[in-house]
Every structure is written in C-alpha cells, then in structure tokens.
Amino acid sequence: NVPMKAEGNATFDETSAFQRKLVTLVNPVMGNYPASGFRTTFLLIPGQLGQLRHRLSAFGTLRLETVREDGCRRPAFHFYAQRSRLPTVADLLGSEDGGMDPEATAAERLLEVEIGDLQHLPDSGTFITDNFNEWQKRLVLTYRNLVRSASENYDS
Fold first, then answer.
1. What's the rounded Cα separation, in Å, for the pair 23 and 41?
2. Cα–Cα dist 56/4, whole Å
C-alpha cells in the first residue's frame, strides 16, 4: 500500500535528518513545496508519474489501484508492475478501428486500464481527487508515446 499523503501531524522540519532522507528517497517532492499537496506522494503528481511510467516502459503491466478494506476505500493505493511486452494499438483496440486517431484511442484505453481505478480514491483535497479527469489528461502524452513505441517495436 502506498499512502496518498504522509501520515502524522509532524512537519518536514520537525523530523530527524535520517527520517528526512527516507522521505526524500520515497517521496522526492518536499512537504512544503506548493505542488506537493501537503506531502502528497510523488506517484500522484502527473509529471512525476509520467516520467516514472516512461522509465518503466519495459513493464508492460503496470497498475495503480485504490486500496479497499472491508468494502471501504482507503486513502492509499496498490502499485503493481510486471515485466512484459507493452500492448500495441492492435492489442488495445482489437477489431475496433479506433476512429480518426487509433493511437490516441489506444493510449486512452491503456491509461484507463493502468490508472483509471484511482478515480475511486476517497476525497483528500489533492488534485487527483478534486479533478480526476484533468489529472488524467496530463498523462495522455506519456501514454500516447508508450503506445507509439510499442507499436513501432512489435508491429514492424
């Protein structure tokens, strides 16, 4: 489980030097940085997640799913990654034609499969829970590049 926000009431300045190093290792966005959303985990910042997804392109299977316990959603998510081949446009669309821009349709489908479940995170006052659609749109280019790359590598 990856928590959406750091737990506890301590501010970053009140932690020990050792704890600060661990926080920086796990969450490189500092707690007092405006984009951090009060120490929101870096995986929920679209630019950071986009870079990570690009670097993990060898992992054809990647999922971020909302944690549910006893039927209740928790402010945390599971992160799954498995090394496999990235799906191509043909894999994602099957027999559908994909409309005017099949690559964009395939990218949106992959984005939905990998991170679409995060729209079920409980409200937390962060960008992802306040406006999931806008948050998700910031990742479309990354996913379009992934689909294009997979299609070029596997379809040729």
1. 10
2. 21
> What is the β-pairing status of strands 61-69 and 2-3?
unpaired
Helices then strands, counting H and E runs in the chain, come out as: 7, 3
Two tokens, residue 41: 């985990």
Report whether 62 contacts 49 (CB < 8 A).
no
Reported pTM: 0.74
Summarised one tens digit per residue, pLDDT across range 64-88 is 999 998 888 888 889 999 999 999 8
Closest CA to 51 of 64, 63, 38, 42: 42
**68 DSSP β-pair partners:** 73
How many Å apart are CA 95 and CA 51, to the nearest integer?
31
Owner of token pair 């910042």: 45
